[in-house]
Amino acid sequence: MYLKFNLRRKLLVYGLASVAVLPLSVFAAAQHDGSSAQPLRVILVPADGGTEDGTKKDFVPIFNAITRATGLKFDIKVGQSYGAVMEAQCAGAADIAFYGPASYLPVHRKGCANLLALAVKHNESVYYSGLFARTDAGIDTIKDVKGKRLALGDLNSTSSFAVPVAMMIDGGVNPSQEAGAINLAGSHANVLKALAEGVADIGGASFDSYEKAVNQKAIDPTKIKVIKKSAPIPYPPLAIHPGVPAKVQAQLRDAFERVHELPGVTPDQIRGYGGAKVDRYTTKVSEEEMAAAAKMFALVTDQVKQDIIKKASAR
After folding, report:
1. Do 28 and 111 belong to one domain?
2. Residue 291 lies in a domain
């Protein structure tokens, strides 16, 4: 009884209430097989601060095409945080999950996930993080972060937290000690909104999110400048629980390799992180290459995270 209550409590803390109400037997049983009775449970990170419906809309056409091609059924949900998605996959409540490399790696190390597919754009499966500043904030280099108001995204986000913090530390600035204030805004979109509204002087976000905000006229690019662009980061992966039947995993890998060619899908419907249009997906992905990406944010230790949380709570 205690185990059942404790698992539910943890999932509720991470914001995945719809999963938390499932009975304990669901977690103890084998992963789902994609049948009508046991659809594969797909849980997505809340991309770019968008709505649940908006995030699902980016992926539904892809999974619908795979259903038509393979007969596999899917139940698609959106977690309320990155942590919710990570917890759900390790609790056995997600067969497939979508999140960034910084979230994937600890889940993979626990044996809860393996790489399934990465989006491809312009023959690459990479994206970029950046530190963006208001042009009127007097910030030209990372050193100028000292004393300024800093906005960051979700604590488990690769490109709105881990990489921006690593870039600052590598540039000689300890944000928890030297930033004037820290706002854990929760998403890329909220970081950029804080910059646009003058609530923050500098913030970390992905370039995909920045470009999306510019295109939607959510920010004025003449008032925001790039202080630092990261090295290429492996694209946020779709990850599969290793307990999913091997036959189903093989079907999924085959389908994702040719999803852009499947009937009923237009090129505009092949979407990835933050709803960005991509060319296709590939399952020819390397755990070694993904693990190597950890070097980009190795400086962001648990202690660094705790110090940032403490600083942010002192606002």
Report:
1. yes
2. no
DSSP tag of 36: S
pTM of the model: 0.84
Q: Which residues contact 188 (CB under 8 A, 6 or more apart)?
A: 48, 49, 153, 157, 159, 160, 205, 206, 209, 210, 274
Q: Give how many domains the chain has, as a whole number.
A: 2
Domain match, 197 and 249 both: no
Neighbours of 309 (CB within 10 A): 14
Confidence label for 280 from pLDDT (cuts 50, 70 and 90): very high
Contacts (Cβ under 8 Å, ≥6 apart) of 8: 20, 21
pLDDT of 315 > 90? The answer is no
What region does 267 belong to: left with phi over 0, alpha with psi -120 to 50, or beta? alpha
> Residue 148 domain-assigned?
yes
Question: Do 242 and 268 share a structural domain?
Answer: yes
Is pLDDT of 30 > 90?
Answer: no
- Give the burial class of 273: count Cβ atoms within 10 A of its Cβ; 0-12 exposed, 13-18 middle, 19 or more buried: buried
